[in-house]
User: What shape does this take?
Amino acid sequence: MVECSEPKLKEVLKTYRPSQLDEQLLTACPFYEQDSKELTSAYRLIHEIAKSRILVKLQMRLNEVSIVSELPLEFGRVDGAAGNRIALKNNNDDIILFIEIKTGSIKFVQPAIYTLQTKKKTLVAELKTGDVFVVDIELAEVIVEELITHLKEKDILRQLNKKIPGSECRYCGAECEFRRKVKANGSPLKSLPNILNNIDVIVDKIAAEISKELNTRFCQAAEAA
Assistant: This one.
């Protein structure tokens, strides 16, 4: 990321957590506010089940690396990481890549921020579909640049008192004439069987990406020798 954007991102992270920024990029209205109503703990439970199953299966599969859960970063906390066999102690040199697990809506800004902080790839596993997306440094730069520009332009519109009502009004927590009530989507447990069915698929894809990264490092080391 160009150096002039790094201070801008740090300023943004004084106001928002990395997990909140995808929603900011997805919404057009400058007055949009995240709804503060408390969600059922079932969503968190499903996420923790999926995370623990994936990380355990990865460690069983990949004897040559160490798998770590809930690794703290400068801003935020990543779901998992794969690193050298020597114990990971938040040493960036030990890390091969990061893993973010999504049992609900997919996010790309959050992992992009993690990647830019550490200059390591982040794999985003979408349990509902079984897809695994790779956020590398180049892609992370593009995403974060767009975020910063979007927030800047929304701030200008906010100062001009320009609202942009739309479908996002259903999920907005701001007191506004355009606010709508959204009906609950039923029990979150309905998605659990599909999520569990995709765990092995996710593990296969993440393991393949880790192996690919290890092979790249081996080839680079061989060329340098």
Summary: DSSP finds seven helices and five strands in the chain. The mean pLDDT is 88.
